[in-house]
Amino acid sequence: MTVDPASASLREVKDRLRGLLRDELVLAPADAEARAQLERARGPDGRVDLRSLDLRVLPWALEGLGKEQVRALAVFKHLWQRGVSDLSEVQTVSRSTMNALAARSRLGALAPAGRIDSDDGTTKFLWQLHDGHHIESVLIPDEDRPGSNPNRYTLCVSTQVGCAMACSFCLTGDLGLKRNLSAAEIALQPLLVQQQMPGGRRLTNIVMMGMGEPLHNFDNVVTALRIMLDEDGLNFSHRRVTVSTVGLVPRLRQLVDTLPVNIAVSLNATTEEQRRLVMPITRRYSMTELMDCCRTLPIQSTKRITFEYVMMAGFNDSMDDAARLAALMTDVPAKINLIPYNENPDRDIRRPSPETVRSFQAYLAERGFNVTVRATRGVDVSAACGQLGKAAQRMVERLPPLETEPS
Ligand code: SF4
Asked: Going by CA atoms, what residue is nearest to atom 5 of ligand 1?
């Protein structure tokens, strides 16, 4: 991984703060990346959303107030570790400083709009955004199977309202792209779900596989990831955070150069023609280009790229497909996740039989591949893979209201 000089200096600042709290730290001039992040966080009224800034950039939002680095760290911890929703709750910084900061800033928010629990333990959370749009997150406890971890809770996070990628099997794609989520709207999903988990249970894993193509909202996703990974933020291990993509090749390489998160590639086909039929992005970045990129990504030797393969009966589930998939994976540090299609009334796509899925999996396993079949979760609440976002507006009307007040 490329070492980010900004992160290195941040580490230095934190070390100094922990040992030398009285030391005055001078704010260096904002670099281009920091200025760009500040501009993305700025609303039409000129106020900056503090929740859309990572800790390397937050000090510049306090510029001119003095001791910016020290105070930024205090604000960041209150926002992401204590989950405060009002700057007046930051008690370790003087009231006058917080008042001055409040006058020039705002805090991005997600209003809980409802939740619905599936019979299999999956929970779908619906959030309303400030402009009336809705997004969803799905909480998935580890499967009830031998070897499962009862303490593992994964949150599937959305990164856009709708999606521009138009994958033919996916209902979210029907919505088209409405808008990108801000960094705050992305990072708040795990924070707010965590606050609703009972009995000291904790979210352990994040997957960016909800509504949207994460790399199509690259800058905000990277800022949200920095907040999630920061030990003074949401403090997730990079080993437990996965970003899924249809294969925006230049952005994929840029992400791996920027952060050490896990990568999942939504593949779903074994020939260029077949993939073009279901994933229009293949016309922009061919499957050959995508696989060449995956072969040369500088990922850590302990990591593998997960290839998601939605199996559709009579389309990509033959043994010829299995053989081509094995060939595509040559020299790639790959893990293959087979996802039997979730049938729904909006698509004339059939789910392969269990025997077909088993044979496909066995073919790959016999050739030494790490291959799993994803258990279907949350179908009864339309939270399964490819079902997010469908008729979200109508869901608002039928979901039971949450007890929690909107933040
Ligand atoms: S599968 Fe993912 S990238 Fe494709 S349309 Fe659906 S949300 Fe977008």
From this structure: 173
